[in-house]
Design goal:
Length: about 180
């Protein structure tokens, strides 16, 4: 399968909803599947970052590529379907996972300067490409229209099989992540 790349639009990939945190194809399908899927993603992207195009060996922070799972998310029904695995450099991967970055920076596990540099990297790629981040506005419109599904509706589909939630409530999620 050929892919147009680099493709900075991947930086706007939506976050997997909180009820499904820690539930993903690699935990469902196992480490052998995950290792094969990520090696395939690296090969398909010619060992370059799918978002920014940098050679994985020359990437900032870590000279290796990281694998990121792509999902199709329907916020009205709660269906989150696994689509693919793509190769990303550390900076682009962390830009996608901004919420995690905020959390670990707040805990002192990431330097604020690194956080700022990663945010600038991703923002610069989006601006250069003329891509507008409208994720929040789309979710706000669904919320205002009363079309955003409830916590209980979220479910993950991997290879056509439905999987429930990892966290049954926001309280359970907060207990796990925030202690």
């Amino acid at each position: 399968m050929s892919r147009p790349f680099p493709d900075p639009s991947i930086l706007l990939h939506p976050q997997i909803p909180k009820p499904l945190h820690l539930l993903n194809p690699r935990t469902i399908l196992g480490q052998v599947w995950w290792d094969d899927a990520r090696r395939t993603a690296y090969w398909l992207h010619m060992y370059h970052c799918h978002a920014c195009g940098i050679d994985g060996n020359k990437a900032a922070y870590f000279p290796v590529l990281e694998a990121h799972e792509m999902y199709s998310i329907d916020y009205t029904t709660g269906q989150v379907e696994f689509i693919d695995v793509v190769a990303l450099c550390h900076a682009c991967h962390n830009f996608i996972h901004q919420g995690r970055m905020v959390m670990i920076t707040g805990k002192g596990e990431m330097e604020p300067e690194k956080f700022a540099a990663i945010m600038e990297h991703g923002t610069r790629l989006l601006v250069r490409s003329g891509i507008v981040d409208d994720r929040t506005s789309k979710l706000e419109v669904l919320r205002e229209q009363g079309k955003l599904c409830s916590w209980e509706d979220y479910h993950l589909v991997v290879n056509g099989v439905n999987h429930g939630q990892r966290f049954k409530s926001m309280e359970e999620w907060e207990e796990y992540w925030l202690g």
